[in-house]
Amino acid sequence: MKKILKNSFLLASAFVFLLTSCINDLDTLPLNETDATSETAYAEPSSYLNGLSYLYGYWALVSQNDMGSPDIAVADAGQSELTRMYMVLNELSTDSFKIIWGDNYIVPIQYHRWTSADNEAIIAVYTRCMKGITLVNEYLIQTTEEKLKDRDHLGEIATVNQYRAEARFNRALYYYLLLDLFGNPPFALEENIGGELPKQIGREALYTWIEKELLELANNSDMPVKGDVPYPRASKGSVWAVLARMYLNAEVYTGTPQWQKAKEAALNVIGMGYRLHPNYQELFMQDNSTNGATQEFIVGVVYDKDNTQSWGGTTHLVSATLSSDANKAIAQNLGLNGMLNPETWNGYHVADDFIQRFELSGVQWGATSGFGYDRENSDKRAFFYNIGSTREFDNTTTDTGWRCWKFTGLYSDGHTVSDAESNYKFSSIDFPVFRLAEMYLIFAEADARMNGGVVTDPVAKGYINQLRERAGVASKTPATMDLDWLLDERVRELMWEGHRRTDLIRYGYFTSMAFPWTLKGGVMNGKVSLPEHRKVYPIILSDLNANPNLVQNPGY
């Protein structure tokens, strides 16, 4: 699939040829006059798979050209990429993630001061999702049976029908992101290509449409089953995974909880043959697409330092986390020569109040060697380092709080990325959007929600125990797994994978003064409440100004 993604760049210009007819209100950049048309792009039957691959790859791609030239109006190409800014909106706005840089999108998100004025993180995620939807709509137009007949490609109908189901899945996933982050985005289908500007249908109606679309893909479509297509292409397991997460948060989106549906959807995924990878650390190594880790991945974003390069993606999660001293010291602690990571952008931190949610042994501040805690006897999902830092986090300096090296330059055989390799500054770690561990956690939380806030189903307890055994902390598992404990377990299992904001909103903690964290609301101790409208981000101004059908989210 990584090789196919490289070829899919050939279809990029054809896809965006009609883009502005649907989303000319977004900050996309001008197209080249030499861009191919859709008809020339689909002259060969192999182009249908290349086109599908481009849809999958759009999470990681920033332009039709190179990794330094974004095709949307965000100044820094790496900061225009969907995966990176999806993670920023969902983690930087919470207790799990701190950035000390001064980029103009950071302070508003970190301190909960964003407005409807331009914020490049908000622009990037909104625009990428809307553009991704339009790319799918165009693909569906160009792959009808009538179009295939006109091109004398009738022999491809069965295959292309499966591709169309996968494309619809990608569209539903983009709409789910918009539902969660923006609440009431524009709603565009194929008829909006070259037609009317899209309108909003409301958050509850969008939820209903996504649910119906996904259920049709799961039950009555050409969507492949697991094993029929290679990773990272989606299957019916991917469809049920999105449904499981959406049902878990249904009360937020619609006002009506759907705990039983969440439990059943998660169980559907669990029964499809995914497996926990036995080594948690290998899930986030440079070779995670080939070391067996993807047996746990249900939906993943592919990165390859030679073919799908990006300064966003997992590159920023590797390069931005460590100082030079920490980079070298962690490598030495692991018995490695040189550096752990290929670059040291030195900007990402974690505050101590968040780290306390992990089960660490022997935490020591002021130590001059080691990791700052007894890593050998701590949760194996903890990848932290505090040597040379102070416990009190200060967002104006580089040596406070903790460093996190969950995503690294390591390969499974123990060697690290070398500057002798081509394109060594880029990461090849695939980013897990959905993985089996989340389904275990959804199943357990849904069970607790239906049983007085405590997990009672022995199957659910068994799933959580599997996660705890892999993490080496099974002996510390409490007899009673309540909702707050499960929330902390989600932190330990899913840190920096884009879940935290959604989780805190579902628990009623995101805006609550009763759940403080460092720099919440721009206050150091975080003992403040946030306005309720902060639970969604605003519709971007360029879209509002260009599309008279749209209204802004309340509070902005």
Please give a structural write-up.
- The strands form 4 sheets. A two-stranded antiparallel ribbon has the order 1-5. The chain has a two-stranded antiparallel sheet with strand order 2-3.
- Residues about 5-25 and about 25-35 have low confidence and may be disordered.
- It has a domain at about 1-205 and about 530-555: Serine Threonine Protein Phosphatase 5, Tetratricopeptide repeat, CATH 1.25.40.390.
- With about 550 residues, the protein is mainly α.
- The protein has helices at about 1-10, 10-15, 20-25, 40, 45-55, 80-90, 105-110, 120-140, 145-150, 155-180, 205-220, 235-250, 250-255, 260-270, 315-320, 325-335, 350-355, 435-450, 460-470, 485-495, 500-505, 540-545; strands at about 100, 185, 200, 295-300, 350, 385, 405, 430-435.
- Helix content is about 40%, strand content about 5%.
- The chain contains 22 helices and 8 strands.
Please outline the helices and strands.
Layout: H1 2-8, H2 12-16, H3 20-23, H4 38-41, H5 47-57, H6 82-91, E1 98-99, H7 106-110, H8 120-142, H9 145-150, H10 157-182, E2 186-187, E3 199-200, H11 203-219, H12 236-248, H13 250-254, H14 259-270, E4 297-301, H15 315-319, H16 324-333, E5 348-349, H17 352-355, E6 384-385, E7 403-404, E8 431-435, H18 436-449, H19 458-471, H20 483-494, H21 500-506, H22 541-546
Antiparallel strand pairs: 1-5, 2-3, 4-8, 6-7
